[in-house]
Amino acid sequence: MNRRQLLTTLAAAPALAQINSQPVPKFRFRSGLVAYSYRKELAAKTMSYDDLIRRLSDWGIDGLDCTVYWFPDTSPGYLAGLRKTAFKNGVQIYNAGVRVQLSQPTPELQLAELENIRKWVDVADRLGAGHVRVFGGNVPKGATEQQAIAWAAEVLKRGAEYAGSKGIMLGVENDYGLTVDAAPTAAIVKQAATSWAGVNADTGNLRMDGYKQLEILLPYVTSVHLKSQVSAPNGKKQPADWTRLLGMLGNSGYKGYVGIEYEGAEAEAEIPRLAAELRTVVRKLSV
User: Fold this and answer.
1) Burial group, residue 181, by CB count within 10 angstroms (0-12, 13-18, 19+)
2) Would the pTM count as exceeding 0.70?
3) Cα–Cα dist 108/122, whole Å
4) Does residue 10 have a pLDDT over 50?
5) Cα 71 to Cα 42: distance, rounded to the nearest angstrom
6) What string of H, E and C letters represents the secondary structure of the chain?
7) Beta carbons within 8 Å of 57's beta carbon, 6+ residues apart
8) Each residue of 196-217: pLDDT tens digit?
9) Each residue of 120-146: b (16+ CB within 10 Å) or e?
10) Residue 51 neighbours by CB distance under 10 Å
11) CATH class held by domain 26-285
12) Is residue 60 within 8 Å of residue 96, measured between CB atoms?
């Protein structure tokens, strides 16, 4: 080592020691917002998806779960423009939420849902999103829950084969019908047995004892929705402890986006406040 190299090394030593002495955050999360939070504005066309992306950028939110229900079209030109807006504003479109209902009792209906998955996977691919969230659907009339799970798992598995060919994950959201509880939601993914499918965990949709129910989903989580409330053991809603929820997710090994989904009536007042709260929690807990 010559004299110049030695001096450079010595000069850098205090800075390196300071960096090494700092506590390293334990987790790796990124903040997000679910477009469904602005469903009224998007449906009424008083807000566009481009407008929403610019808001997220202004708030310091990292990504958009782009619920696609109110897209004006899915032409290559529109999708390219939306992707450009996201890139120029430093916002990642990471998820596309679509109206797929997996549990279908006949081959014809299953094929229709599979085609629906393929359509929206192609849209997600053009947007640069690595995840598409789908629904389990209702238990078909006259069927048992186990039959419904098996049908849903078959469609999910076949859909994931196509999604995986594009490098895109499918996530079953715990929501209504078949997936109203954590156990059948997890069972669909487990039976599908593919590394390209998991659970889009909605922490506010778990009807009874939300923290305990989330534990069932943790091995399968591929994306996360956070709401301002979570269910207590008696089923009543209580304020959600986002630090606790993110701690559970992080300790399970989950890394990725955690997106606010607001379902109240005061979007203009409440969403900016929730975004600031989420940004603070994420930055506190993660790299």
Assistant:
1) middle
2) yes
3) 21
4) no
5) 9
6) CCHHHHHHHHHHHHHHHHHHHCCCCCECEEEEEEHHHHHHHHHHCCCCHHHHHHHHHHHCCCEEECCCCCCCCCCHHHHHHHHHHHHHCCCEEEEEEEEEECCCCCHHHHHHHHHHHHHHHHHHHHHCCCEEEEECCCCCCCCCHHHHHHHHHHHHHHHHHHHHHCCCEEEEECCCHHHCCHHHHHHHHHHHCCCCEEEEEECCCCCCCHHHHHHHHHHHEEEEEECCEEECCCCCEEECCHHHHHHHHHHCCCCEEEEECCCCCCHHHHHHHHHHHHHHHHHHHEC
7) 89, 90, 91
8) 999 999 999 999 999 999 999 9
9) bbbbbbbbebbbbbbbbbebbeebeee
10) 13
11) alpha beta
12) no
C-alpha to C-alpha distance for 235 and 276, rounded to whole angstroms: 28
As a whole number of Å, the CA-based R_g of the chain is: 21
**Structure confidence by residue, pLDDT tens digits, 15-34:** 434 445 555 568 999 999 99
Q: What is the pLDDT of residue 2?
A: 54
60 φ/ψ sector (left φ>0, alpha ψ -120 to 50, else beta): left
Cα separation of 157 and 226, whole Å? 26
d(CA 12, CA 15): 6
Residue with tokens 């999604």: 163
Q: Quick one: tokens of 71? A: 């897209």
